[in-house]
Specification:
Order of helices and strands: HHEHHEHHEHEH
Number of helices: 8
Structural class: mainly alpha
Strand order of the largest sheet: 1-2
Helix content: 55-70%
Strand content: 5-15%
Shape: globular
Number of domains: 2
Length: 174
């Protein structure tokens, strides 16, 4: 799973659990805000418990977004920032454990230079992990909102889908 949809998921969980909007006020969502779609996305992740994969680069990119949100918070709230960040990362850890979310690492030195140059290390890691895990005989579908990842996956015949399309299909079966 790519950064955008996963970040949206965790930010929305945080907002719901802590009745707080400090993150969502500073992080623009990439997936629909429609409550039905959001509920279906959460159900989709629950339904695929134990079969979810992301790269450690995606987690690092989520951290970069959180740091930007923190830096945008007014000085009056800086005393609570550490507490807010701790809550966020505890929620992420717990939810990833609950979903049996697999976090894998693709080493920079093993990434193909052309893809690395075109897409950067985070997006390249997603593509390379999909290739690696596909060799195990299991079907992996890259879920993204990123047109660069989508295009490269199509070129390399890696199963890929727009996250909204996959959730719409999931909703039809609910």
């Amino acid at each position: 799973m790519d950064t955008g949809p996963l970040l949206d998921y965790f930010v929305r969980l945080y907002d719901d659990q802590y009745h707080s909007t400090w993150l969502s006020a500073h992080i623009s969502p990439v997936t629909p805000r429609n409550k039905i779609w959001v509920a279906a996305f959460h159900s989709f992740l629950e339904h695929h418990k134990g079969r979810l994969l992301t790269s450690s680069g995606v987690i690092a990119e989520i951290e970069r977004h959180i740091c930007r949100a923190v830096s945008a918070v007014s000085k009056a709230h800086h005393r609570r920032i550490k507490e807010l960040q701790e809550r966020f990362w505890t929620l992420v850890q717990n939810k990833m454990k609950d979903l049996k979310f697999n976090e894998d690492t693709q080493h920079l030195v093993d990434m193909p230079k052309n893809t690395l140059t075109d897409l950067g290390p985070v997006d390249t890691s997603i593509i390379e992990l999909a290739k690696t895990h596909a060799k195990s005989g299991r079907i992996f579908i890259v879920l993204t909102k990123d047109s660069g990842i989508y295009k490269r996956c199509m070129e390399e015949q890696i199963p890929v889908d727009w996250v909204e399309d996959r959730i719409k299909e999931f909703m039809k079966g609910m």
